[in-house]
Amino acid sequence: MNIEWAKAVGEMIGQGKARVILDVHKIDEFQAGEVLVTNKTDPDWEPIMKKASAIVTNQGGRACHAAIIAWEMGIPAHPGPRSGFGSGGPHL
Within 10 A of 55 (CB to CB), how many other CB atoms are there? Predict the structure, then answer.
């Protein structure tokens, strides 16, 4: 997955195994230190967002839920990257 063209939230660098979770009911599959990759987040996602080393979402921008929570928690986020999910990249 190529996310190098994403506009990051924050100045930190996150790393870890990417875990794609598209359904909040499957958050028990997420392990601490992984990179959360999903379409978008809402308050139901916060328990795993606290364990993530970084967050990548398919939807959103610099003021979306994932970006705001990641900023508050001090972890990097890439909301709505311009490559990697769209235009020839993998689609969630």
Answer: 27
Q: Which two tokens stand for residue 44?
A: 């139901």
| Entry pTM | 0.79
Nearest-angstrom CA–CA distance, 7 and 5: 7
Helix (H, G, I), strand (E, B) or coil at 74: coil
Q: Residue 49 to residues 38, 60, 83, 86, 87: CA-CA distances in angstroms?
A: 11, 16, 22, 23, 27
- Joined together, the tokens standing for residue 75 give 């972890």
Q: How far apart are CA 29 and CA 20, in angstroms?
A: 10
The dihedral of CA 33, 67, 65, 39: what is its sign? negative
pLDDT tens by residue, 3-24: 445 566 767 788 899 999 999 9
